[in-house]
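Tip: read the tokens left to right.
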């Protein structure tokens, strides 16, 4: 597969959905209160808001049975593209339906037909014109690194071992720079050979892909692969969960690869260095905290192996793949490194009912926070209630987007949960 499939190409997949509704629930619920895996259906409370409902509407579009209406578009925009439905569907139906790829195709079709909402158009214009969704000046993208003895990749520099990819969320968040700079300084002190992408760091393509702007996503992906190639680095380390998901699971859809370059999240990289004894963590607190698995760091960061999506039919009813191939259930995401780092800092990890590949989205992704903010807010409220049900007042996560959205919701709604970004804890715990 060298290109994401179109809705037309996925018509068989759309038609194979048996309307069982498993995609609304975690595979093995521990309680009724936290059985849902789909923030969109929790918000819309109507089948159209589920993955299955979107597949039916996608088929309706193809067969000219439905039109673009406000309600239809609202149901699509309420979906956070969290991929929970995909993991749950595959438990029973393996490769038969693969709803997430159809959700991507549906969004691309909506964009192609000119029905993207104004919020998506603003986001994509900012990504195209400024290289970040906020519309901040490109020239300021590397200000976070001012004063560090950290070279920009290329720019006449010898190749370094590691290219740091910071991502726009952190690069433009001045209040996050002290923590970011502190971690980078510790890495430099430890003798790590690092460069960063400077103002040429392109958008990862993750958000553009989620919104349905496939060609823009492809262009951003190509620019990133080219920058990594030019840098000569042998490892790419990103601070961004959504970039990690794009690098591992969106780029292969475009037939793009980093070749032999290793791709790691910052938590995986630091965890490796701690395990090798090159870095030391000090105890920050011995209070326990719940850990929220970000969708983009967890199930959506499981590497995608391009494969043949064509199925053969045996005995008129049984669908089989043509060749044995790995199925992506979401189990191979980045789950252990953040937990190990919390343990190394003295924080016992409290597992939420919905964790790892069955995690529940915070609501911030897929353009939902911008297009349907009340849906995004409800997802965060649900997640914070789950934290409270565990009896811990603290939630740690390893995605700056999740941390910002969850803490903003807790503040705005007076929910007594303290949300911490693991990055800030690492900045305190890493020994200089
Ligand atoms: S998408 Fe999968 S889990 Fe959901 S209703 Fe269809 S077959 Fe069932
Ligand atoms: S991607 Fe997430 S929000 Fe969208 S339908 Fe699937 S589970 Fe629901």
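Filled-in amino acids:
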């Amino acid at each position: 597969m060298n290109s994401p499939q179109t809705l037309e190409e996925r018509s068989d997949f759309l038609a194979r959905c048996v309307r069982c509704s498993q995609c609304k629930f975690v595979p093995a619920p521990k309680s009724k209160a936290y059985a849902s895996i789909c923030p969109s259906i929790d918000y819309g409370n109507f089948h159209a808001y589920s993955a299955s409902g979107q597949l039916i509407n996608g088929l309706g579009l193809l067969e000219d049975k439905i039109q673009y209406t406000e309600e239809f578009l609202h149901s699509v925009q309420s979906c956070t593209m969290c991929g929970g439905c995909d993991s749950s569907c595959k438990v029973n139906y393996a490769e038969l339906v693969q709803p997430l790829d159809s959700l991507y195709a549906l969004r691309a079709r909506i964009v192609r037909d000119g029905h993207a909402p104004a919020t998506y158009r603003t986001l994509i214009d900012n990504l195209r014109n400024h290289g970040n969704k906020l519309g901040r000046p490109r020239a300021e993208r590397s200000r976070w690194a001012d004063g560090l003895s950290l070279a920009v990749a290329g720019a006449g520099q010898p190749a370094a071992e590691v290219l740091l990819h910071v991502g726009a969320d952190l690069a433009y968040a001045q209040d996050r720079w002290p923590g970011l700079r502190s971690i980078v300084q510790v890495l430099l002190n430890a003798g790590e050979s690092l460069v960063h992408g400077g103002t040429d760091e392109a958008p990862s393509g993750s958000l553009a892909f989620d919104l349905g702007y496939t060609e823009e996503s492809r262009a951003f992906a190509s620019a990133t692969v080219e920058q990594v190639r030019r840098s000569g680095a042998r490892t790419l380390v990103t601070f961004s969960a959504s970039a990690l998901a794009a690098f591992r699971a969106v780029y292969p859809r475009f037939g793009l690869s980093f070749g032999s370059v290793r791709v790691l999240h910052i938590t995986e990289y630091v965890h490796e260095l701690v395990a090798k004894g090159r870095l030391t963590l000090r105890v920050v607190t011995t209070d326990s905290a719940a850990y929220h698995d970000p969708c983009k760091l967890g199930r959506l960061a499981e590497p995608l192996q391009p494969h043949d999506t064509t199925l053969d039919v045996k005995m008129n009813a049984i669908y089989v793949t043509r060749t044995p191939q790995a199925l992506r259930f979401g189990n191979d995401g980045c789950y252990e490194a953040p937990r190990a780092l919390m343990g190394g800092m003295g924080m016992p990890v409290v597992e939420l009912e919905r964790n790892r590949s069955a995690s529940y989205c915070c609501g911030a992704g897929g353009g939902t926070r911008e297009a349907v903010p009340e849906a995004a807010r409800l997802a965060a409220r649900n997640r914070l209630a789950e934290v409270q049900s565990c009896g811990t007042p603290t939630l740690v996560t390893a995605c700056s987007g999740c941390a910002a959205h969850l803490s903003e919701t807790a503040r705005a709604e007076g929910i007594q949960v303290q949300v911490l970004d693991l990055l800030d804890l690492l900045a305190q715990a890493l020994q200089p």
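The domain at 121-275 is CATH 3.40.50 (Rossmann fold). The longest strand covers residues 162-165.
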